[in-house]
UniProtKB/TrEMBL annotation:
Residues 76-109 form the Mechanosensitive ion channel transmembrane helices 2/3 domain. This is Small-conductance mechanosensitive channel. One of its GO terms (molecular function) is mechanosensitive monoatomic ion channel activity. The lineage of its organism: Bacteria, Pseudomonadati, Pseudomonadota, Betaproteobacteria, Burkholderiales. Pfam families: MS_channel_1st, MS_channel_1st_1, MS_channel_2nd, MS_channel_3rd. The keyword Cell inner membrane applies. Residues 283-297 have a biased composition (Low complexity). It is found in: Cell inner membrane; Cell membrane. Belongs to the MscS (TC 1.A.23) family. Residues 283-305 are annotated as: Disordered. The chain crosses the membrane at residues 20-41, 62-82, 88-108. GO terms for cellular component: plasma membrane.
Amino acid sequence: MENLLVEISPDRWAFLLDALTVFSIRLCAAAAILVIGWWIARRASVSLSRLLARQSRMDATLRPIVCDIGLWGIRIVAIVGALSQLGIQTASIIAVLGAAGLAIGLALQGTMQNIAAGIMLLVLRPFKVGDYIEGGAGSVAGTVFEVNLFTTRLTKPDGICEYVPNSALWSNSIRNFSRNPMRRLDLEVEISIGDDVDRALEVLRTLAAADPRALRDPAPQVMVIRFDDSTAVLNIRVWSKTDMFWTMRWELARQVRQTLTDAQCSLPLRTRELHIVSSATAETATDTAAGQAGSSAIRKPDQGP
């Protein structure tokens, strides 16, 4: 080995030294490009987020998506620049990455579905940040906090944070409780079937119309919807603004019982009639049928031609 090193000419040593020097410089330059690119991408994402937050016309739903696109766009450019510094042909790298991306996409179909669903949610906009929604076939409900490419972040009514895959929302119906400016309240009330139904309808209609949160158009309605056992079920339908819906519901539910009591409508007690057939009667009917059959059997031999 020592003889081999001795036989290497000084020119070859100089060539190897120059090659190592050039490669080290390119390697340091590639590492510097990556580090600077990552730093610039991070700062650009933060600055873009602050800029979009000051724009009143920019929807909060699109803000994280735009920031993520800018972040990874700069990082991809930095990676391509670093590979170019190392002397690697970026065209072949892009082709290899495309083939690898296709294979990864086939292997991660569920993840790709989340990305596609996130794009469709952002384009069609069935909800936005701040809306209260229900989706996932009724298994998901909460206030939208953030929409990303993969998941949607919800805050449940009890304050718990929930991350829902975008495909779970997009593949099922979505109920948006905050989209429309008005919402109808349906409140069922039960009274005894022996009470004055017309009087109950009148006082409940007056109560609904007197509520300041109830809209005049459409006007409040009170009607009988069904009779159950010994109970008459009334339905109060009142329209209100969406942000006042729950306040009006709780207040009306509290006042309904006292209003019906003042109108002399009692709390219904469900009753049911049961008719029991006596066993003695059944036995008498059985004995009578047996006696008639025996008489017919005794008279049968006396019958002549």
